[in-house]
Specification:
A hairpin with a 5-residue loop joins β8 and β9. The two termini are 36 Å apart. The strands form three sheets. Strands 7-1-8-9 form a four-stranded antiparallel sheet. Strands 4-3-5 form a three-stranded parallel sheet, sandwiched between helices. A two-stranded antiparallel sheet has the order 2-6. 30% of the residues lie in helices and 20% in strands. With 228 residues, it is of the alpha/beta class. α2 (23-33) crosses α8 (182-198). The chain contains eight helices and nine strands. The longest helix has 17 residues, at 182-198.
Amino acid sequence: MKLRSKRYKLLKEKIDTKKVYNVDEASKLVKQTANTKFNSSIDIAIKLNLDTTKAEQQLRGNLALPYYFGKSTKVLVLDDSLTIEEAKANKIDYFGGTDQIAKIKEGWMDFDVIITTPKFMPILSTLGKILGPKGLMPNPKLGTVTPTPLKIAQEFKKGKYNYRTDTYGNIHMKIADSTATEKQISENVKFFIDFIKSKRPSTIKGDYFQKIFLISSMGPAIKVHAPN
């Protein structure tokens, strides 16, 4: 059995494990528990009443939260109509067409997201074994296959988070970090819960949200009220 640290035990004493906290209360508590020597991640974990064997109940996409606490995203835009001037003006890290795809085939992977026009998808699809396992294959559902790649690239440069349900209907995503204020954490959490609520499949019966937790790095889970 894994022994918990003294720090963890002290933090656990701050939390009533039998209580379901509202978002503001939970945000205050998770901020207090994000006290590691490094910049702690603050994550949200949501258990949804979904049958992920059904395509319409597989939630996946990206969104921009009110406050962004992620790293700077390196963007590769596959659009051979994009000029050097446009790329520089929009702070695009890499751009091009078949020349960039050839580099990927040779093992180059110095980017976080690929945004492409539909034109390049037939070629990119042949790189499924390279891009798929790393979650880098462009997907229309994520907005990364688009006739307006520059517009979408700007959104990613400003800060976007990817979200997706796992096999069991769980979503686990970074919502903030220890540099965030309680207000910023609370606003991000409320925004994300409302966003996921708006994605409720029409075929769901009964409660949609089953459990919601906020967790800081190496900290205890805090149960949050689930709207239904």
